[in-house]
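User: Sequence in, structure out. Go.
Assistant: Echoing your sequence, followed by the structure tokens.
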Amino acid sequence: MRGLGTLFCVLGFMAAACSSGQGETQAQTDTQATAPQSTETSGGGGIAFKQVGDGLDSPVGIASTPSEPDRLYIVEQPGLVRVVEDGKLLSQPFLDVQDQVVSGGEQGLLSLAFDPEYESTGLFYVDYTDTNGDTRVVEYEAGGSAPVERRELLFVDQPYANHNGGQLAFGPDGRLYVGMGDGGSGGDPENRAQNLDEKLGKLLSLDPDPDAREKDWTIEGYGLRNPWRFSFDREIGDLWIGDVGQGSWEEIDHTPSDSAGLENYGWDVYEGTHAFEDKDPNPKGQLVMPVYEYSHDEGCSVTGGAVYRGERVPAAVGRYFFGDFCSGTVWSLVLEGDKARDVRKVGNIEQLSAFGEDAAGELYAVSLDGELYELVPS
């Protein structure tokens, strides 16, 4: 299987700077995931990421639900959702959609989000690339011997095999959000990101009530190239997006919770804050420039993260964490006004593919190599 290393090389168009990788197979016993206790990737400020698990197969997402505080759910690109319970990787997957997914490059099972009322509803949502290469967002209900598919909420025809986005998350408004890449190729050749008649290159939201239909998705933001991971600050509700750049710049976008809505994040008129195409942006909504960008001297494919709101690492509270797949560098920053300040290098995680929070707000990260890391005091 071609792993997600290919995905990020394609995203950054910096194949020479990337190395492909592949985790171990998913067949593990419950005790094989006990973590090495001495592996840390340390940075400044008294914080570090410590390896707390391994044995995953191309992990690309992390999810949790308040009703199960001792569990993390890990999304594996080939089509499994694995469970880490009390620090151990369980042998039985939570979900298996391998027969419905095409996996490799930028395609596969890409995200999982639990209904905020999961304890009573049993509902959760996944985003995957189907066997025809198209995007589907599907609702499942947990229970019995295996979750049951209830309905499809979104289908998007993908013109190319790259820039699938794929992140799912519930916002503070209770709506389900999905990040869609611009459809792929290079330079958004069909101008989809700036076209409000297209779902590609957009941040979409839906109230997934029983009567919701595909036509009910709302465009919350546009002008995105490939939003490889976004998150909502669980304390104040602000939105953070890591949007992968074309060939020169990676960007972090921020939208406050009280925004009027319909943000234009600029692609493909801009790459970061830099002009990319000689044309005017779509005038609808509000043009938003990134709060932080870095050049391909420091990496080539941003992995968006989250604002830390846990209790174990007081020095990290309120800081936004993100990283780069190609360089492995992990940074954190704070926001002052509309600009990033106090940007710090935290450490290095090779083939960093995703961040995620547990039910208490503790921060984790996964490597495509199959390793799970947790933010800890150093």
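User: And one key feature?
Assistant: Residues 4-12 form the longest helix (9 residues).
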